[in-house]
Structure formats: C-alpha cells, structure tokens
Amino acid sequence: MRKFLIANWKMYYGPVKAGAWIRAFRRERLPKDADIAVAVPHVSLAAARASLGRATIPALAAQDVHWEKEGAFTGEVSPTMLQEFGVSVCIVGHSERRHIMNETDEMVGKKAVALQKAGIIPVICVGETDAQRKKGQTKKVIKDQLIAAITDLAADGKAPAVIAYEPVWAIGSGKPCRPQDAREVHDYIRELVSKTWGPRYRDETRIIYGGSVNERNIGEYMTTTGIDGVLVGGASLDPRIFALICRTAAPA
Fold first, then answer.
1. Cys bridge to 232: 139, 148, 166, 236, which one at CB 3.0-4.6 A?
2. Whether this model's pTM surpasses 0.85
3. Which residues pair with 7 in a beta bridge?
4. Cα(first)–Cα(last) distance of the chain, in Å?
5. DSSP string, 83-94
6. What's residue 226's pLDDT?
7. Domain 3-249: assigned CATH number
8. Which residues of 111-121 are buried (b: 16+ CB within 10 A; e: fewer)?
9. Active-site annotation, residues
10. How many other CB atoms are there within 10 angstroms of residue 211's CB atom?
11. How many CA atoms lie within 13 Å of 109's alpha carbon, on the beta-carbon side?
12. Which residues sit opposite 191 in a β-bridge?
C-alpha cells in the first residue's frame, strides 16, 4: 500500500511563506511511491496553488471545512470552495479542533461525509487525552470518535477516507507514542473498520499516525506493522525536514 504522508502547518505561514515553502519543497528529492499532501491555512491556499502550478506533488490539502455547501456561516469554508482551489485532501476532527473549538463527534462525521461527496479525501483524526489514557479509556474514545465519523461514509467512495490516530497527549509534546502502542491502536481501528464496512476494508483502509513525528523517529513508525503513513505537525514547517521524513517513510 502506498504511504500517505501529510504536512499540517496548523496556524503558521501566510501566503508569502506558503509560496516559498512549496517552491523549496519541490526542489527536494521526493519519493514517487507515496501520496504526499500539505495542509495549509485557508488564507494560503491560493498562494500554495500558484506555487504548485500543474504539479501534483505535494497534493494541496486544507485543515478544516464546514459541512454545508453555502449559507449564513460567517467565517466558514465549504467543500465546494475548497474544490475551486484544487484541494484534494482535508483534515477533519483534529484534536485541536475538538478540544479548543469544541467540535463534536457528530460535527466531524458531517464534515467527512460532505468532503467525500465533493470528491475530497477526508483525513479523520481520532485520539485520546492523557487523562483518558490513564483511566484506560483509549479504546472507548477511539470507538466513539471513529464510528460517528465513518458510519455514514461510503467505504468504496471516490474519495476513500484516511484515518489518523493522533494521541492528544503526544501532539506537540515531544513525547511520541511508542510504536508498539501505536500499532495496538491501529489494529483496534482496523477491527472497527472491518465491523463497520466489512472485512475487505480492514486492510484496504489507510491508517496513519500523528503525534510528535519527526525525522529522528519516523523510521521506527514505518517499520511498525499496520501504520500506513504519518501526519506531521511542527516538523513539517521546514520543507527540507519534511522531505527527509518523506524519503525515510517511502524509500525508493
């Protein structure tokens, strides 16, 4: 299965820096047998698209979306708006959206469905907090978040969902989840996918990991069975570092 590698800039890089990042990244040696995307702030989509030109690597991704096509939703961006920029991937349910912006599992599910209908791949983030982990609630949290997000999705849709396991306690902490622990959660996610969509999709669905991934630990995750790629935050702000991560994750 082709690796799925996503850079998530979060709230960094306006149009000027976004264009410079794209141009620098395209000069790097990149793996051909991987799907690479860069999730930029909405205000930088136009600049990133202009710098990409006709290039398809990296694919242009968004960091969030609203589920309605249009309407009185001040400050929101719809799937059809993202289509106009050539966005092909969009993150939904990131822990920062859930815990800072108070997004619910139901909202994440509606966003994922809207994206898939628009032909945009939804990258659905799930993950537990440190308090939930210490209480032994990891599987319950993952199940509640995931089932709400994928129940109404088409398993074989034209934009098949990607699931990102991002333990909240590891994001930005410098303390990534141990690869063997991440593998256990990935295996559990595959069980849930199989029960929801059918056994065929257990191994066909790409499940990636995110949470303090960097150029030093990427090798460990990629040699862990069941991890199909990574969602990279802070380490992706440097195009050279993210390119190195991509080469390590998907060597030629």
1. 236
2. yes
3. 38, 232
4. 14
5. HHTT--EEEES-
6. 83
7. 3.20.20.70
8. bbbbbbbbebb
9. 94, 166
10. 25
11. 14
12. none
Task: Find out whether 34 and 246 touch, Cβ atoms under 8 Å.
Answer: yes
How far apart CA 159 and CA 79 sit, in angstroms, is 13
| Buried residues in 21-60 as b, exposed as e (16+ CB within 10 A) | bbeebbeeebbeebbbbbbbbbebbebbbebbeeeebbbb
Q: pLDDT in tens for each of the 252 residues of the chain?
A: 899 999 999 999 999 999 999 999 999 999 999 999 999 999 999 999 999 999 999 999 999 999 999 999 999 999 999 999 999 999 999 999 999 999 999 999 999 999 999 999 999 999 999 999 999 999 999 999 999 999 999 998 889 999 999 999 998 777 789 999 999 999 999 999 999 999 999 999 999 999 999 999 999 999 987 899 999 999 999 999 999 999 999 986
For residue 59, what pLDDT is reported?
A: 98
Locus of tokens 């139901």? 106
Q: Find where tokens 């969602």 sit.
A: 231
In one-letter notation, the amino acid at residue 228 is D
| Sequence-separated (6 or more) residues with CB below 8 Å from residue 10 | 63, 96, 233
Burial of 73 from C-beta contacts in 10 A (0-12 / 13-18 / 19+): exposed
Q: Which residue has the tokens 């209908």?
A: 117
